[in-house]
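Sample entry was shown:

___
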Amino acid sequence: MGSLPLEAMMPLNPDSFAGESSAVVDFLADYYRNVDKYPVMANTQPGTIRKLLPEAAPELGDSMDRILDDVQRDILPGLTHWQSPSFFAYFPANASTAGFAGEMLSAGLNVVPFVWTASPVATELEQVVVDWMASLLGLPERFHFKGGGGGVLHGSTCEAVVCTLAAARDRALSKLGHEGILKLVVYASDQTHATFQKGASIVGIPPANFRILRTSANSGYGLTATIVQRAIEEDVARGLVPLYLCATVGTTGLGAIDRVRELGHVARRYGTWLHIDAAYAGSAAICPEFQGHLDGAELADSLSMNPHKWFLTNMDCCCLLVANPTTMTDALSTDPEYLKNVGTASKMAETVDYKDWQIALSRRFRAIKLWVVLRRYGAAGMRAHIRRHIQMAEWFEHVVAADERFEVVVPRNFSLVCFRLRPRFMADKAVEALNRDLLAAVNASGRAFMTHFVVDDKFVIRLAVGGSMTEMRHVRAAWELLKEKANDLIATGC
């Protein structure tokens, strides 16, 4: 049997590391230069990549140049290009030079800081940057480590939700006993992300005990204290226990804003855990003019926001802040002998083991990525980034409202505009079909990508401004594209 190629025997060869890594950097630089030339949404058939690739892994390795050639030929055409300046779908997934540099450092150093001794500085840097974030968001001291709270960087809001639900569950069951889980109730609005239903199911809350509370246009589709109070009173009368309430600042569908302070007072009255989900719009709270949306945060038990959405931090990075970390670590901690910090007992009172703040044991060094972003752009640069997108969305909302064929369905919050084509002569069912066709035509053009939502039986098109490379000319082009496709559809009677 022949010997393995030398490069396979030394997979982390410092002499070849720089050259191969530089080739990837050059490839990505060319990709960003030309990303606007690709159709924004992938136009490919299911199973395409399987047909292009061999059935088995290669026996011998290839050069990095050949691999990158295959990425160019086979991979890029099948991607939806989230970093395209004409990507207006879902919510943004920001990338930046600093975010990429931080990601390279995280991946390159490749430490696993699950306990303090596994990489002390990695743990402590995470404590520093989550405190920085709490300050930037204008949160009360109770969410800072120095105030008895603290934070952790997860991969996604989904993880943060499961962790806080588990903490709330165990806090309640410590009084009720484990059989009391059948009494626990979770509350959210009809605009709340489905992640919360999934999380509740994972931690054992019966599906029948998840309350989806209706919102309306009168409150801007935000959840009100009156609705929550009524639902909780009904459950308490039935012998149930109000466990957990989600208040969202910037809902996925419409960008709606729940009334945090009002909901906080209701939650306090019943001993209910209040979580603020600011996954998207939390980034805007670094601007003083938007911090009012978090008014009442001192009444909350936890808050999460995703720097990987709108904060120039490459995937993945979710900042979870909690007022009482012990409730979470009590629910999530394990203490096997092989993870004990031998020889450092005198220091342990001052340290954090982040394995006890999350679902998994292993974890990435995300803190260095967020730290590099904050160091490179500073708070002023980040505020300018947020405000620039909001100004573009304001312009788009204005031109939509000024065109009598279109309507803004809900007033804009942040950088999300929800609208539809609404010719006066059309019946409601025809309008829904028309907007479905309009969205399909826009996305099929390859010149922009948007997504939709349905509210009060209205099919709504969403334009979320937030791409790192998006400029006003791209928003203007999206509006021209919408008008062009609308003209075509109306002219053909579709």
The chain has a mean pLDDT of 93. Residues 83 and 467 are 6 Å apart (CA to CA). The longest strand covers residues 241-248. The chain has three domains: 6-37+42-79, 111-364, 382-491.
